[in-house]
Amino acid sequence: MHSQSSDDLVTLARRVISADADEIFSVLASVDASFVAMGQLTASIANEVKQPLAAAAMYGKASLNWLARNTPEIEEAKTCAECSLKQMTERFRSSTGFISS
User: Fold this and answer.
1) DSSP states of 33-83 as a string?
2) How far is CA 1 from CA 7, 10, 18, in A?
3) Is the entire prediction scored with pTM above 0.90?
4) pLDDT at 98
């Protein structure tokens, strides 16, 4: 009889441990999904920052190239600078909407 009662306790303990383990794995899966989502959001934000900076650098280099010619092309350099400013302004406005929403 003592053995039966010990077996019942062992069985009960195993069930409790198994249920706790399932709950722990469920919580860990939820945390893992949150980290994946956070990583995706971080990558998206990095792209939102990186892309317009790369464009501004490209326009800046183009402006310098127009100015470095034997006969500097002031209007072309000005157009490149304006395009860079316009793109950065638009990107900034769209990103502040993204952040505030």
Assistant:
1) HHHHHHHHHHHHHHHHHHHHHHHHHHHHHHHHHHHTSSS--HHHHHHHHHH
2) 10, 14, 26
3) no
4) 55
The total of other beta-carbon atoms located within 10 Å of residue 66's CB is: 18
CA proximity to 48, closest of 91, 80, 90, 5: 91
- List average pLDDT for each run of 10 residues in the chain, which is 101 residues long: 67 75 78 82 84 85 92 92 85 66 50
Please enumerate in sequence order all residues whose Cβ is within 8 A of that of 94, keeping only pairs 6 or more positions apart, or say none.
none
The contacts of residue 74 (CB under 8 Å, 6+ apart) are 66, 67
Chain position carrying tokens 């993204």: 98
